[in-house]
Amino acid sequence: MYISLHNHSDGSLLDGYQTVQEMVARAKSLGMPAISLTDHGTMRNTIRFYEECQKNDIKPIVGCEFYFCPDVNIRDKSLTHHLVILAMNDEGYMNLKKLDTFAYNEDSYYYKPRIDWEALREHSDGLICLSACMASIVNTENGEEWFEKYKELFGDRFYAEIQPLNLEKQWEYNDKVIGLARKYDVPLVVTTDAHYSIPEDKVYHSHWIRINGNQYHDDENYIWSDDEIRSTKWIPQDVIDECIENTEHIASLCNVTIPDSGSHYPKYPCSNPKEKVREICRRHWKELVPKGKYKEYAERFEMEMKDLEATNYLEYLLIIWSVLSWCKEQRIPLGEGRGCSISGTKVLMWNGTVKNIEDIVVGDKVISHTGQIREVTNTFKYEVNEPMIQVTVEKRNPMTFTCDHKILVFRGSRCHKKESTGYKYCRPTCSQSCRKYGSYEWIPMDEVEKDDLVCFPQVRLPKPQQTRIDVKELFQDVIEKDGYVNVFSNDAQWEKGKIPRYIDITPDLCRLIGYFIGNGWATKGTHKDGVSGGYKLGIAFPTIHMEYVEDCRRLLKQIFDADTSVKPNKRNTCVQIHCYRSIIAMLFAKLCGVHAINKHIPDILMVDNPSWTVHLLEGLMRTDGSVAGGRTTYDSISYNLVCQIKTLWSYLGRDAVIRIRNVTHKNWHTSYKLVLHSTSRWHGDNMFHTEVKDVKHIDNFKGYVYDFTTDVDHSYIANNTVVHNSSAGCLVGYLMGIHKIDPIKYHTEFFRFCNRERRSPADKY
To answer: Would I find Isomerase among this entry's keywords (predicted)?
Structure first.
């Protein structure tokens, strides 16, 4: 049976359209016993893929389609080619990870994370090599020489890959590969280089890759069935059986086991860590525990000790205690161990809007550093009189936190190009020899410096909860009849003004909503035939884009059967579309807001549906968007809307920054410009990076500060920057002098510090 061995998930940024869940579901529906993951130059989805396969009784074949060049010291993009590598066993999996690390290391990165011949030779054990697609080095002038070298290195673990694409150049390449395979006795294998799961997703994949400025033939790049492979006319029939049998053979050879990660702590030099912790806590009991509350504190203490022992945290605490004790002896200043923010800090909510931190309540849903949705479990408010740190990432939008509040930064080596680029640290995409594979660190705010790289995650939106809009549910007083709704009841106006009660959410509707949000309005008006008292819908477009005008009118007719009129402005620079069907105007106003300052994307569209998102953004960018001088921008006076658009671009794998524009007139609203980067500042861990513009120390702040806790990973996005919600609580740590916050007094939660289900310590990224 045919098994798909060359597949790209959404980990292949703006190239692979399918999720690992969709890949595995497709394999299962076709009866495949195994499937591979071979994303471009990354293994970011490997664990997710492995776990999804395990859940569905599908064998996971772990791999990567590397960017290969003969020598990484050569700075020439034309010499970067594709090479598919699969892990046969655990040794192969380790070598696969070493190659992946090498690709992001030192001199290897040049526009793409690359491996070279020497790295491949050093780490080839336990690996299977496929010659890859037409982007292979085999498809070059020296292709036969490299084909022979692959054969010499991998032996019977090297396979010649052909693909059933309906392209003349693919047929020619297949003939070349088959000829080389016969000459050097190399087995053949067939793949479809799948970038999406099912044929119906082709149109969405085409939109997907165009976001990144790419376009190529993709009619067959989905996961094919066994019958489709056997019946294709694009692979010679005399080799098809061999190709299919070899997919099965390769799958039988690949047996990788990825163990669950665990915690690994150094040992503290004592015979009984439990008794040592109790001894330290007894010394400070009377000093720190309020009189009359011994029983309450003792119960909390015993509960914590039980969990600390069960999770092997006791030695971890003793090591921290010994380090801090030494610091105190050396008179090294220590932080307070509690982080908070002043009022006005903007917290990113699940739907892309923002909320002031002082307004956050239990049950709110926010975005964490993993890009996932987390629920707020508790809120905190403290009165302080202490120094603060003001960090500016977005111009004119600083955030102010206590000195010890944690922020996520990417730290690498010092950049040799600092004077010319202005960057203190190497960017992850730096092409110079100074670039190293850096790491993410949670650091206190008072350690942040100008030009540090702070983070914003690729947001993971929730699955759609509805696929159609019930207009009657939105407007209880509308009149319903025969599956249609209207605000007018008399016969003449009923027929002219009715629309279907249920409106399907389609890509076309999403684009129309984008048009309205970008440059539309809904106001009371008078119909051209004299009917007054209703609402009219208007949407404006630049005169130079009449094709957008026609598209918008077509959508209104197609979705609502609504007639429209067109009217240019006095200077003929823009064209206004008018629709006098009241219920349509009311619907769009209800979903998206009426005035520019309160425009927003409805929650039903802030979901995990790339096709909806692409068409929504298309409508938005065609109205208030701009492409000039190589920059794509979007302007609005609605900060919530701009934040939502940034969130959607992040979901699609593109980075954007928000700039606040100066107000030059007292009656004008503050304007916000979203700037989409032409090349994403992407590192490979689902994070974007932005430089810190400025850091200021505030000597003394008197007032209230705020924080909150969330479930699972305890972080949130403040002013479009990842920070830690630092209110973990541990009475044992308090009694040992590790921190100065009484968890019972301030209601901080122990499970934030120590959770039996957590795989790593609280502050670990």
So the answer is: no
Q: What is the pLDDT of residues 157-175, one digit of tens each?
A: 999 999 998 899 999 999 9
CB atoms within 10 A of CB 22: 18
If residue 506 lies in a helix (H) or strand (E), which one and from where to where? none
Phi, psi of 389 (to 5 degrees): -120, 130
Residue of 671, 669, 672, 670 whose CA lies nearest to 657 = 672
Question: What domains lie within the chain, and their CATH numbers?
Answer: 20-124+193-253 (3.20.20.140), 263-332+727-764 (no CATH), 338-408+444-458+624-722 (2.170.16.10), 468-622 (3.10.28.10)
Does the predicted model carry a pTM greater than 0.70? no
Determine the residue type at 466.
Q
The identity of residue 59, as a single letter, is K
Which residue, chain included where needed, has tokens 């007094």? 745
Report the greatest alpha carbon distance in the chain.
Answer: 93
Number of Cβ within 10 Å of residue 746's Cβ equals 12
Give the whole-angstrom CA distance, residue 228 versus residue 232. 6
pLDDT tens digits, one per residue of 41-91: 999 999 999 999 999 999 999 999 999 999 999 888 889 999 999 999 999
| Rounded Cα gap, residues 136 and 68, in angstroms | 8
Q: Which amino acid is at 259?
A: P
Residue 111 confidence (pLDDT): 86
The DSSP letter of residue 757 is T
Work out the mean pLDDT of the chain and round it to a whole number.
86
**Which residues, other chains included, contact 19 with Cβ-Cβ below 8 Å and sequence gap of 6+?**
9, 10
Name residue 136's beta-bridge partners.
82
The kind and range of the H/E element at 756 are none
Q: What one-letter code names the amino acid at 522?
A: A
Q: Of all residues in the chain, what percent are helix, strand and coil, respectively (each to 5)?
A: 35, 25, 40
Task: Write the burial class of residue 241 (CB in 10 Å: 0-12 exposed, 13-18 middle, 19+ buried).
Answer: exposed
* Helical spans, DSSP H, in 422-545: 471-474, 491-497, 507-519
Distances from the Cα of 249 to the Cαs of 57, 93, 255, in angstroms?
18, 18, 12
Q: What are the structure tokens assigned to 698, written together?
A: 């505030």
- Can you say how many angstroms the Cα of residue 722 is from the centroid of all Cα atoms in its chain? 13
- Parallel, antiparallel, or unpaired: how do β-strands 346-348 and 406-411 relate? unpaired
Return the pLDDT at 302: 94
Q: Residue 393 to residues 353, 368, 450, 460, 720: CA-CA distances in angstroms?
A: 18, 18, 9, 23, 8
User: What residues contact 172, with CB distance under 8 A and at least 6 apart?
Assistant: none
What spatial distance separates the first Cα and last Cα of the chain, rounded to whole Å? 42
Dist CA 713 CA 291 (whole Å): 35
Per-residue HEC secondary structure of 310-348 comes to: HCCCHHHHHHHHHHHHHHHHCCCCCCCCCCCEECCCEEE
Average pLDDT over residues 446-475: 92
Q: 288: helix, coil or strand?
A: helix
Report the 3 state secondary structure along 181-214.
Answer: HHHHCCCEEECCCECECCHHHHHHHHHHHHHCCC
Residue 172 in tokens: 């020619």
